[in-house]
Write a structure and sequence with these properties.
It contains 20 helices and 16 strands. The termini are far apart. It is of the alpha/beta class and about 650 residues long. Bound molecules: beta-D-glucopyranose (2 copies). One beta-D-glucopyranose binds next to loops.
Length: about 650
C-alpha cells in the first residue's frame, strides 16, 4: 500500500513537472513556433549587452569559454591555421568547439554560438581531412555535380568537429591572375563561377539547412573582390589584394554581382563582405551596395558578416569605422581579436545615437533568424558519428576523381602520354613538386599560407607514380635532378623524364606578383632534363597560369594540375590512360607578362599578341590534334 502510494505520488510529480517544463518553454525555445515568432520573442528578451555580444565574432584564441559567457559572444572563428594548439585532430577540434558551445548554452538565454571556419577545399585546417583541389581546378573540371558532392563531404567533415558554418564558397571572378587569390576563384568567367559556386553552396547546405548533415555556407567576398586594379592594394607588399575595383557600375553588375543572384535564390543565408573597395570606397562601409543592392534589389534576408578586421579602416578612426559599417548593414563583425574595443565602440555609438537601437535589433534578428533556420537551438553540437568518415577512403575517392577531372592537357606530342605501365623503361622524376604534398595543396591548408613537403596526409605525385609504373620500370627520383652516372660513367639517361614544377604555397596578398615566370630552378631543371631523356613530361602545380612559353616548346607533354590537394593518384589515373583528360581552361593562359591585364573584350586570337591558350582550351586522348593551331603559334612566338 505504501509502495503504491509512493508510486502514484511520483507519477503525479513527474506529470506536474513535465507540464511546468512545457510551460517554462519560452516562445523562442519552442520549435513549433514560426522562426519569425521565435526571433522577435528572443530579441525582446535581450539586453543591449547581449545584443552587442551577438554581433561580435571573435577569433578562438582571443577568447576562452569564460569570456564568451561573460560577454555573450555570439560567434567564434578559426582563421587559416587556427587549429586547436597541439591537438590538430578531429577529437581536438570537437572538444574545443564544444567548450565554446557549452559556455554559450550556460548563458542566461542559452543562445547557441556559431563557429565558423574556412573549409574552402575540404575541412582543410584539420590534419587528416580530405583536401580537395582548390577552386581553380574545379573550374577546369566544370562539373557542378562533382562540386556539389565535394560540398556535401566537406559539410560532413565539419560537422564531425562540431562546426556548422563555412566561409565558402568564393564567388570572386578573378580578372587578373597576378592576384594571389586567383586559385580561390573557379574562373575568370562569370557564368562558370555562378554555376559552380551555386553547386558548392547547395552541396554544403542541401535543400534545407536545418537538416542534420548540412552546414551554413557563406558566399564571399561581396562584391568584386576579383576585380581590383593592379597596384591598388592597401597592404604592405600587396599589389591587387584588398585593392580597388575601378570598373563602372554596369561592369560591376555584369561581371561580379551576377553570381550573388543565383546564390541567394539557392539559399544563401550569410554573406561575407569584401576587403576591397569600389571606386575608392570600401565595401565594408558601402551603404549603397549593401543596403540598396544586396538587401534591396537582391532581397537578401540572411545576415551579413564582415571579413577579418574588415570594419576597422573604413573611416578615419575605429569608432567612426564601426558606426559607418554597422549602419551600412554589417550585422556581425569578425573583430577578430580586440572584442572589448568593438563592444566599447558599440556602446558608445548607442549612447550617442550614432547607431540606433532599431538597427541593432535588426542586425541581431538577422543573425538569430539564421541560427534558428540552421536548427542550432535544437542541435547545437556536432555529430560524432561522422568522425570516422573524416579523411576516409570514400571521401578520398571523390577527391581523387576530382583531381582527374581537373587536369588540363596543354600539349601531348610524340605519344608522350599516356604512359605505358608495363614497358621496360627508365623513368627519371624530378622537380620541387614531385614529392611535395604541401605544394599540391597550396594555401589555406593546415596553415593559412599552406605547409611544406610533409605537412598533411595524402599521396604525392611521386608516390602515385611509383604505384602506377609496373615492375619493368626503373624509376629514379632526385628532387634537384642530380641523377648519378651509370657504371660506365655515362650520364644518366631516361626513356621518360617527368618534371613536377610550379608555385610554392601562398594565400591572399602573399601571392600577389608581377612575375608569373617559373622559378629559375624549375626552368633549369626542365632544360637539363630535356638533354637527359627521350620523352619529357612537365606537370605544373600552380594556383594560376604561369609563363611557360620556353618550357612548353621543350616538353613533349605538359599538364596543368593546378592545386590538386591530397590525392595525387588522381593525376596518375589520367597519365596512364585509365581515363581521359576532361579539364578545360577556366582561365585564359598568358604568353607573357606584358599581356596582363587582359582586355577580355578585345583579346587577340592570332599572332603573338594572342594568349598562349584561350579560355576553354584543353586536349584529350580522344582528340589529339585539337591543339595544333595554338601549339604551332607557341613555337613560332617562342622567345
Ligand atoms: C588573415 C586571415 C587568416 C589569419 C591567420 C589574417 O591576417 O586575414 O585570413 O586566417 O591572418 O592568422
Ligand atoms: C579572408 C577570408 C576568410 C577570413 C577568415 C580573411 O583574411 O579574406 O576569406 O574567410 O580571413 O579566415
Amino acid at each position: 500500500m505504501m509502495k503504491l502510494r509512493y508510486f502514484f505520488l511520483t507519477l503525479l510529480l513527474v506529470l506536474v513537472s513535465s507540464v511546468s517544463a512545457q510551460e517554462a518553454l519560452l516562445p523562442y525555445q519552442n520549435p513549433d513556433l514560426s522562426i519569425e515568432e521565435r526571433v522577435s520573442d528572443l530579441v525582446s528578451r535581450m539586453t543591449l549587452e547581449e545584443k552587442i555580444g551577438q554581433m561580435t565574432l571573435v577569433e578562438k584564441d582571443s577568447i576562452n569559454p569564460d569570456i564568451l559567457r561573460e560577454y555573450f559572444i555570439g560567434a567564434v572563428v578559426s582563421g587559416g591555421g587556427d587549429y586547436p594548439t597541439g591537438n590538430n585532430t578531429v577529437e581536438g577540434w570537437a572538444a574545443m568547439v564544444q567548450g565554446y558551445q557549452d559556455a554559450a548554452l550556460a548563458t542566461r538565454l542559452a543562445i547557441p554560438m556559431l563557429y565558423g571556419v574556412d573549409a574552402v577545399h575540404g575541412h582543410s585546417n584539420l590534419l587528416g581531412s580530405v583536401v580537395f583541389p582548390h577552386n581553380i581546378g574545379l573550374g577546369a573540371a566544370a562539373n557542378p555535380g562533382l562540386v556539389e558532392e565535394i560540398g556535401r563531404i566537406t559539410a560532413r567533415e565539419m560537422i564531425a568537429t562540431g562546426i556548422y558554418w563555412n566561409y565558402a564558397p568564393v564567388l570572386a571572378v578573378p580578372q587578373d591572375i597576378r592576384w594571389g587569390r586567383t586559385y580561390e576563384g573557379y574562373s575568370e568567367n562569370t557564368d562558370l563561377v555562378t554555376e559552380l559556386a551555386t553547386a558548392a553552396l547547395i552541396g554544403l547546405q542541401g535543400d534545407d539547412i536545418a537538416a542534420a548533415d548540412t552546414v551554413l555556407g557563406t558566399p564571399k567576398h561581396f562584391v568584386a573582390d576579383g576585380g581590383t586594379a593592379f597596384g591598388t592594394s592597401p597592404v604592405d607588399n600587396g599589389l591587387l589584394d584588398r585593392g580597388d575595383t575601378l570598373v563602372d557600375e554596369a561592369t560591376l553588375r555584369a561581371v561580379h554581382l551576377a553570381p550573388y543572384y543565383d546564390a541567394i535564390e539557392n539559399g544563401a543565408r550569410s554573406i561575407m563582405i569584401s576587403f576591397s573597395s569600389w571606386q575608392g570606397e570600401r565595401l565594408h562601409g558601402h551603404e549603397y551596395l549593401i543596403q540598396d543592392v544586396l538587401r534591396g534589389e537582391l532581397g537578401f534576408t540572411g545576415f551579413i558578416v564582415s571579413d577579418w578586421a574588415g570594419v576597422d579602416n573604413v573611416a578615419s578612426d575605429y569608432y567612426a569605422s564601426v558606426v559607418q559599417s554597422i549602419n551600412a548593414g554589417i550585422d556581425m563583425n569578425m573583430v577578430p581579436s580586440d572584442y572589448m574595443r568593438f563592444i566599447t565602440a558599440m556602446n558608445q555609438a548607442v549612447s550617442s545615437g550614432d547607431i540606433t537601437l532599431e538597427r541593432i535589433d535588426e542586425a541581431v534578428a538577422n543573425i538569430l533568424r539564421v541560427k534558428f533556420e540552421l536548427g542550432l537551438f535544437e542541435r547545437p553540437y556536432g555529430d560524432e558519428t561522422y568522425q570516422a568518415s573524416v579523411g576516409s577512403e570514400a571521401h578520398r575517392a571523390v577527391a581523387r576523381d576530382a583531381v582527374s577531372q581537373s587536369l588540363v592537357l596543354l600539349k601531348n606530342e610524340q605519344n608522350a602520354l599516356p604512359f605505358d605501365a608495363d614497358a621496360t623503361q627508365t623513368v627519371l622524376v624530378t622537380g620541387s613538386g614531385a614529392d611535395n604534398i604541401g605544394m599540391q595543396a597550396g594555401g589555406w591548408t593546415i596553415e593559412w599560407q599552406g605547409v611544406g613537403a610533409d605537412g598533411l596526409v595524402g599521396t604525392t605525385v611521386l608516390s602515385a607514380l611509383e604505384d602506377a609504373f609496373g615492375e619493368n620500370t626503373t624509376l629514379r627520383y632526385s628532387p634537384r635532378g642530380r641523377f648519378s652516372a651509370d657504371a660506365d660513367g655515362n650520364p644518366a639517361h631516361g626513356d621518360i623524364g617527368i618534371v613536377v614544377a610550379g608555385e610554392q604555397p601562398y594565400a591572399e596578398w602573399f601571392g600577389d606578383t608581377d612575375d608569373l615566370a617559373l622559378s629559375n630552378q624549375d626552368r633549369a631543371l626542365i632544360a637539363a632534363m630535356r638533354e637527359q631523356v627521350d620523352t619529357l613530361v612537365v606537370i605544373l602545380l600552380s594556383g594560376r597560369p604561369l609563363v611557360i612559353d620556353t618550357e612548353l616548346n621543350l616538353a613533349d607533354a605538359v599538364v596543368a594540375a593546378w592545386l590538386p590537394g591530397s590525392e595525387g593518384a588522381g593525376i596518375t589515373d589520367v597519365l596512364f590512360g585509365e581515363r581521359d583528360f576532361v579539364g578545360r581552361l577556366s582561365f585564359t593562359w598568358l604568353r607573357s607578362m606584358d599581356q596582363l591585364p587582359y582586355d577580355f573584350s578585345a583579346l587577340p586570337t592570332e599572332g603573338c599578341d594572342a594568349p598562349l591558350f584561350p579560355f576553354g582550351y584543353g586536349l584529350s586522348y580522344a582528340s589529339p590534334d585539337e591543339g595544333a593551331f595554338w601549339l604551332a603559334l607557341a613555337a613560332e612566338c617562342a622567345p
